[in-house]
Design a protein that fits this description.
about 350 residues; mainly alpha; three-stranded mixed beta sheet; three-stranded antiparallel beta sheet; 14 helices
Length: about 350
């Protein structure tokens, strides 16, 4: 679940700073602040939407579920108890923001952008798709491999709690119960701990919390039908991750081999062809025709692999840390906050410790 944590109220604060002292990216901050203000203006308290006689019954049911998930997040997962996900906004578009990520032709290292307040991140987000696509075309012209993708939700890291917090959105409210639970838990995790120079740390932590929280929700409240649905989704997710991780490691080895550029390009093309062949076999076999990942495999490039790494690379280490804390979420969060405050090399070394 891609997030765009640098957007929102923090961006509004940055825009004010830029107006006072000058920033070369003022236009970017203004669109970020304006987009978030528009989102906040559209948001209504869930109780108000539920009381509205014109609210469609399917939306009413999903909002009621969202509040049960929100309460569970507080009482069982010890996630922040604030106004986030207690309001709802219909943005009348399929994504809240569109992210742009880029990587070199012969490397999986994502390009980063650095911002006041929020530090450096491996993406740049826009509330208008056309602006994201324009940046993507500019980066391609410069020789970067690019991915532009819609994001269903983002976290303001708690900065917007004073104006009601992050709202539920039409972009994800209709998701299957298991996926909705994971998203809410992931985004709330960003309010617990944030390292301002380490996208992979932040997103892998969010993914670990969504997995751990989703498992606990399923154990407490899952029906047999829901459990079967989640098992099928988890099996596909695990197979997707195993497949892409294997090919990502192969690409890394190719790029690190020291061969000349022409050889690297040829071996890269062979590896991507093998990736797509493996996907076709999965689709024809265990996935029984499931087409939800077709676009990813058809378009996969270094930027696509870079994004995947940010969300999954450190998840096993976070899950081991959770186990070392006896499965206690409060102790786990305290350890993660301690790690987030460390310099990046020390943070990664301590997280990797057995």
């Amino acid at each position: 679940m891609a997030t765009a944590g640098l957007l929102g109220t923090a961006a509004l604060a940055v825009a004010v700073v830029c107006l006072g002292g000058g920033c070369s990216s003022l236009g970017y901050y203004v669109q970020a602040a304006g987009g978030h203000v528009d989102l906040l203006q559209r948001a209504r308290p869930v109780a108000e939407v539920l009381a509205d006689a014109t609210t469609p019954p399917p939306l009413r049911e999903r909002l009621l579920l969202s509040q049960r998930l929100r309460d569970f997040a507080v009482h069982e997962l010890k996630l922040p108890d604030n106004g986030s996900y207690r309001r709802y906004a219909d943005l009348q578009r399929p994504a809240v923001v569109w992210n742009v990520v880029a990587a070199p032709e012969l490397s999986l290292t994502l390009k980063t952008w650095c911002f006041p307040v929020m530090g450096c991140v491996g993406y740049r987000g826009y509330f208008e798709r056309a602006q994201a696509e324009a940046l993507g075309e500019q980066l391609r012209a410069e020789g970067w491999e690019v991915r532009v993708y819609g994001v269903p939700a983002y976290s303001t890291l708690g900065f917007s709690n004073w104006v009601g917090g992050d709202p539920l959105l039409n972009t994800f409210i209709a998701w299957p119960e298991g996926e909705l639970a994971r998203l809410v838990f992931h985004e709330l995790a960003h309010q617990v701990a944030y390292a301002d120079d380490d996208t992979t740390f932040n997103e892998s932590f969010g993914t670990a919390v969504e997995r751990l929280g989703g498992q606990r929700w399923l154990a407490r409240h899952g029906t047999p039908e829901l459990r079967a649905q989640v098992r099928a989704a988890e099996a596909r997710r695990a197979e997707f991750q195993a497949l892409t991780q294997r090919h990502r490691e192969a690409l890394q080895a190719i790029y690190a081999s020291g061969a000349d550029a022409a050889t690297l390009r040829a071996r890269k093309a062979e590896q991507l062809a093998a990736l797509r062949a493996d996907h076709a076999a999965l689709k024809a076999g265990p996935w029984a025709g499931f087409s939800g990942n077709d676009a990813w495999f058809a378009q996969a490039n270094n930027a696509y692999f870079g994004v995947l790494a940010a969300y999954t690379e450190l998840v096993p280490q976070f899950e081991r840390l959770f186990e070392r804390q006896g499965g206690d979420f409060e102790r786990f969060y305290a350890e993660v906050r301690t790690l987030a405050a460390l310099p990046k090399p020390e943070r990664r070394a301590r997280l990797a410790a057995p």
